[in-house]
What we know:
Layout: E1 3-5, H1 14-32, E2 37-42, E3 46-50, E4 53-57, E5 60-64, H2 70-77, H3 81-84, H4 88-98, E6 108-113, E7 118-123, E8 126-129, E9 134-137, H5 148-171
Antiparallel strand pairs: 1-4, 2-5, 3-4, 6-7, 8-9
Amino acid sequence: AGTRRKGQEHTFEPKEEEEQAIVTRYVSGILKDQKGVSEVQIHERDQLVAGELVHFVNRITARYSGELEVDDLLKELHPTPAVGGFPKQAALDFISRNEKHDRSYYSGYLGLRTPDAFAYYVNLRCMQVYKDEVVLYAGGGILADSDPTDEWEETEAKLQTLLRVIQSNDSHE
Length: 173
């Protein structure tokens, strides 16, 4: 949570910091409550460059034993507050009552799992490709003090990465 355009990465506002803190507390709290999980560590906040954007990130690591059901953990974690809001059930109920469109491929998670370790990531920008059109999915973190214009501009900036992929592909045809 927390996104800025490149060049603005040192100007994260309290709103972005709050977004990141909500998500970090949520994920680490669920991990700490899991049977078979220990040594949950929240690593120092960092910035991740993705295309023309910079995102706040906190890597969260933990040790787990064979008691942990990874699929159950993923179901409990998803959707995170970055995707569905917080508190989780109240936010999801609100979305269900008020959104007029199907979120379809708006978000999910992906990762790798071996017998000894796993790493999963939330994917927040997606593209659904049809024969004659594409549908792009992205969103923004809405908090009580969010500015709707800023949120819209942030969402547009997030979609630019996917639009560049489409435009690049069009130029090769």
